[in-house]
Amino acid sequence: MMDTNEHLVTQVNKIIQTNIDRREGYEKAVDQAKEPQLKAFFEDCCKQSNENINELRQIVIQHGGSPVTDTSTAGDLYRIWMDVKSALSLSNTKAVLQSCERGEDVALSAYRDIVESGVRAESVMVHSVLKRQEDGILTMHNRVKSLRDAR
Prior knowledge:
Number of domains: 1
Shape: elongated
Radius of gyration: 16 Å
CATH class: Mainly Alpha
Helix content: over 70%
Distance between the termini: 52 Å
CATH architecture: Up-down Bundle
Structural class: mainly alpha
Order of helices and strands: HHHHH
CATH superfamily: Ferritin, core subunit, four-helix bundle
C-alpha cells in the first residue's frame, strides 16, 4: 500500500506544481492587464488555481505525503508567461490570449497525463477530483479561446 501512496502523492504533487505555475503566470497577467474584462478573467484563473491547490494539498496530506510549495523547474509554463508579459507590455491582447491558451494547453496536458497514469486504480476519489479540476481548466481554456477569437 505504501508504494501506491508514494506514487499517488508524487502524481498529485506534479499537478499542484502545475497549478502553482499557472497561478503565478496569471498573477503576472493580472498585474499587467489594462482591460477590466481581461483582469477579471485572469483573477478567476488565479482563484481557480488556488482552489485546486488547496484541494490537492489535502489529498497529499491524507495519503501521508508533504505537499509541494514551489513552482516546477520544467519551465514550459514559465516561457509561456514570459510571452504573456511581453505581449501585455506591447498591449497586444490577442497575443496575450494566445499565450494564455497555450498555458491552459500545458495545464490540461499535465492533468491528462496524471489521470491516464493509473491514478484511477489507486483512488477513485482522487481520480474524480483530478477529472473535475481538469474540466474546470478546460472551461477556462474555452473562455480564453473565445476571448481570443473575439479580437
